[in-house]
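hey can u check if this looks right to u? its 299 residues, i copy pasted from the old doc so theres a chance i mangled smth
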Amino acid sequence: MQRNNDHSFRGKVAADAKKQNEQQRQEQEQHRQQQSRWQKKPYHFPYRKDIHVTEFRRLPSIELLPLSQADASVYPVLCCESKYERPPQISQENIARKCGRSVPTVRKGIKKLETRIFTGDSNVPVVQVIPYTVNTVHLYKYRVEFITDGMSPYFEPKQMYFFYTSVIKSGAWGAVQKNRSHVVYLALRSLARPHPELYYDREGIQIGDFSPDMDDEDRKSNFFHRYWDVYRGTNAALATMAHVTQPFLASVLDDLRSVGLVEWYEGYLLVYRQPAWMLRDQEPPPRVRRYLETIAEKV
């Protein structure tokens, strides 16, 4: 009688364990399928009111991290997707939507970033691709290197710049049409500097040393939230850094102007830290509006 009871008990335990394992397997499979659907879901650009204008990533200057064409398009997208310690999960199709490039160009950019080294004293690549498979669907995570809060004290201000996520989420990054526009913009952001006198003349706002009547807190706030910096270098220097021929540079700058990322004022080239039309509460320019409409139609 005791043996029968023991046998029955062991059988019940085994059945319960099997049932529990099957339930866990089903839950894991459901999670994988949801993750696959989430990653493959086409990206929808957010409504303007839902774009955070204070969110940014610190990117190394183009002098520290030389970029060319495809990799310059992809790198900011991956950085903005990254949640610092958590590798971003995003399809190459959605990267393409965000940067306005084809999927083959995105793949080429990722390959280049895998060969770039983040800093001179490190062998860590800028991007490490982590492949995994869900139900025969090949997916990827990306470990992306950029300047985090803890790392920033070890870099000089001129060695980094703030790249605001609104540049991508607004559609401006994807709406540019020239192949070199992305790398030229990153080069401009690396080289442009504040110009307090010109800023006051254009915006009527005092920043930096050109604000003697303001307290330190207001001065710092105005400086931190400034709309633009000024590139005062030569076209030759910019063309060399961005690997663009000088005759082609004019059309690239016009391309960036058409999406609100640069502007000519009193002979100075203003380099916007975020799209100008967003900062000034204006409607998107035609180029951006058409791009957003085209992407929406493809979804």
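The mean pLDDT is 86.
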